[in-house]
Amino acid sequence: MDLFTATNVSKTYAAHKALDKINIRVPEQSIFGLLGPNGAGKTTFIRIVNRIIAPDEGELIFNGKKLGPEDIGKIGYLPEERGLYKKMLVGEQALYLAQLKGLSHHDALIKLKYWFDKFEIRGWWNRKVEELSKGMQQKVQFIVTIVHNPKLLIFDEPFSGFDPINVNLLKEEILSLRNNGSTIIFSTHNMGSVEELCDHIALINNAKTILEGNVNSIKKTFKTNTFEICYTGYDEDLRNILSSGENVILQEKEDDHFKATVQLPAGLTTNSLIREMILHVTLQSFNEIIPSMNDIFIRTVTEKHTISPNLPLN
Cα 140 to chain center, whole Å? Predict the structure, then answer.
């Protein structure tokens, strides 16, 4: 079931088309990667979801009905451009922002102190925001984004400025939020984070959705029938023993074994390749090379290669 869908959403600023009939489906209780190069339209789309700006056309459905002003309290938004009041005390500001999200003072205090303890920043409660490091300020903003248990969370580059230890801390919390029922839209340029966290993605380029679907399904779509093979017992050119049209992309010696990257032509099975090779070599490992999300991102954007947005979600 989809928690959020956008259908044919468009937005134009003067002569600039920021979004051109964007179509996105965000399954409930998933982490959805919103990807694209700079200027692709991601920020415009996020602002539309948060009702900061309105689309020129298109339909936004949230939790089974048209997205409306009453839904803003059910959305938590962590923007890339952080914005805390520098002169306010940390705890005072967190309480103020939590109450803006609909929590009572009592409930906000309980929830905030729980999260401040969890993130080990309780000692900064009565300090001014300007006294905090950038990473500490981002922890505070992350907390006030999630403290009211929103049904939909939108994180725009949430790891920017964090050291590796705190990046891992946030990743664990994001996965925990998903596992406990939250749906998350996650915008980032870090394809490694997409690999680790996202169940589904949409790739926007030049204001259009050019790729959407389940991450595993997309990876299978972009497979090239290429395999990495480690072997011993043969130190000559592999093409001397492969006779079925295989393309040997790479062959090199590593310590006590050889490694080769081989692409199979259409119609040739891995069993055929293995049968050919074991007549001459001793196989150590045989693994299919699955493209990374970084490879897919670069290929799709640079080739302007459009894949159907109706890839299976399961």
Answer: 22
Helix and strand numbers, DSSP H then E, in the chain:
9, 14
**What residues have CB less than 8 Å from 99, skipping those under 6 apart?**
105, 108
Q: In sequence order, which ranges of 59-181 are alpha helices (DSSP H)?
A: 90-100, 105-118, 134-146, 164-179
Please give the CATH topology (third level) of the domain spanning 224-288.
Alpha-Beta Plaits (3.30.70)
Q: CA-CA distances (angstroms) from residue 47 to 10, 139, 208?
A: 13, 22, 16
Alpha carbon distance, N-terminus to C-terminus of the chain: 11
Domain with CATH 3.30.70 in the chain: 224-288
Q: What is the pLDDT of residues 246-285, one digit of tens each?
A: 899 999 999 889 999 999 998 888 999 999 899 999 999 9
Tokens of 33: 């990667």
Q: Where do you find CATH 3.40.50.300 in the chain?
A: 2-63+151-220
How many other C-beta atoms lie within 10 A of the C-beta of residue 55? 21
pLDDT digits (tens, 9 = 90+) for 36-95: 888 889 999 999 999 999 999 999 999 999 999 999 989 999 988 777 888 999 999 999
Q: Is 26 within 8 Å of 50 (Cβ atoms)? A: no
Q: What is the pTM of this model?
A: 0.85
**Fold of the 2-63+151-220 domain:** Rossmann fold (3.40.50)
Rg of the Cα atoms in the chain:
24
Structure tokens given for 119: 């993130």
Tell me whether strands 247-254 and 183-187 are parallel, antiparallel or unpaired: unpaired
